Amino acid sequence: MKIAILGGTGSIAEGFALRWAAKHDILVCSREIDRAVKAAEEYKDVLSDKGLLCCGMTGCENETAIGDADIVLLSVPYQGILQMLKNLVPCFKEQIVISLVVPMKKNKWFEYTPPRQGSAALEIREILPKGVKVVSAFHNVSARKLAQPELSLDYDVVVCSDDEDAKKTVMELTREIKNLRPLDGGGLSSSYMSESLTPFLINLAIRNGLSDLGVKFL
Ligand SMILES: NC(=O)c1ccc[n+]([C@@H]2O[C@H](COP(=O)([O-])OP(=O)(O)OC[C@H]3O[C@@H](n4cnc5c(N)ncnc54)[C@H](OP(=O)(O)O)[C@@H]3O)[C@@H](O)[C@H]2O)c1
C-alpha cells in the first residue's frame, strides 16, 4: 500500500516510516519539500545501516502525496491539524485516514482538551469528505520506542472506526509492527477514551520517574 505520513518529519512519524517501509511505499510529507526530502533520505539511511528492507521512501509536500495514497496518517500536533486539513480537503477522496492526534494542554500537569465534537477523531471526520474513512489509533505509543525498528513493542493499540473494513486494515498495519497488539475499540465515538489516556500516561511517567509508558490490557 501507499502510505502518506503528514507531518512525516516529526517525532512519532519516523517510527511509522521505518517500520512500515518493509512492506509499503512510504511518502514522507511536510509543509516544506526540502524538509520532506531530507527526512526521507535520513530514514532510508537508518534502514540501510540496520540492513532493513525499504520498499519505497519518498519525500513530498503534504498536498501532493494525499491524492496518490491508500492510507494517510495524520502525524501533526492538534494545534495545526484542523487548519491544515481544511486547506487540504480537495486532495481527499476515499482514503483511509488514521488519526493519532491528541488535543491536550499543559498547566501544572497535562490535560485532555477535547473539542465540542468529543474527540479529535470526530472533529477531523467532520472536516473531511464523506468518502474518507477515519480510523483512530496509536495515541498511546511511545515515539522514542517506535523509532527503534529492531525493538519489540509490548503495547496494545486500541483501534476505533465506524468503517469495519478500514478498521481491519489499520489493525493489520498495527500487527505488522513487532509485538503491537491491535484491539477493536468500537466506533469512532469511543476515540476520546484512548486520546484522553495519553496525557494521563505522561503525567504518570513524570510523577513516577518513568518514561515511554504505554497500555497493555491483561
Ligand atoms: N510524540 C509522541 O510520542 C506521540 C504519541 C502518540 C500520539 N502523538 C500524536 O501524534 C501527532 C504528532 O506528534 P509529534 O510529537 O510527532 O509532533 P511534532 O514532532 O511536534 O510535529 C510533527 C510534524 O507536524 C508538522 N507540523 C507542526 N506544526 C504544524 C502546523 N501548525 N501545521 C501543519 N503541520 C505542522 C511538522 O512538520 P513540517 O514542519 O515538516 O510540516 C512536524 O515535524 C500529534 O497529534 C500527537 O498528539 C504523539
Notes on the protein architecture:
By secondary structure, the protein is an alpha/beta fold. The chain has a single domain (2-208), classed as NAD(P)-binding Rossmann-like Domain (Rossmann fold, 3-Layer(aba) Sandwich). It has eight helices and ten strands. The strands form two sheets. An eight-stranded mixed sheet has the order 3-2-1-4-5-8-9-10, sandwiched between helices. A two-stranded antiparallel sheet has the order 6-7. α4 packs parallel to α5. The mean pLDDT is 97. Bound molecules: NADP nicotinamide-adenine-dinucleotide phosphate. NADP nicotinamide-adenine-dinucleotide phosphate (NAP) is lined by residues 7, 9-13, 30-32, 35, 75-80, 84, 100-102, 139, 141-143, 198.
Strands of the biggest beta sheet: in what spatial order? 3-2-1-4-5-8-9-10
Strand content: 15-25%
* CATH class category: Alpha Beta
Number of helices in the DSSP assignment: 8
Tell me, what's the shape? globular
The tally of structural domains comes to 1
Largest sheet data: 8 strands, mixed
SS-based structural class?
alpha/beta
CATH fold-level name? Rossmann fold
Give the full name of the CATH homologous superfamily: NAD(P)-binding Rossmann-like Domain
Q: Separation of termini?
A: 32 Å
Question: What is the CATH architecture descriptor?
Answer: 3-Layer(aba) Sandwich
Q: Helix fraction? A: 25-40%
Total strand segments: 10
Write the H/E string, N to C. EHEHEHEHEEEHEHEHEH
What is the averaged pLDDT score?
97
Query: For the CA atoms, what is the radius of gyration?
Result: 16 Å
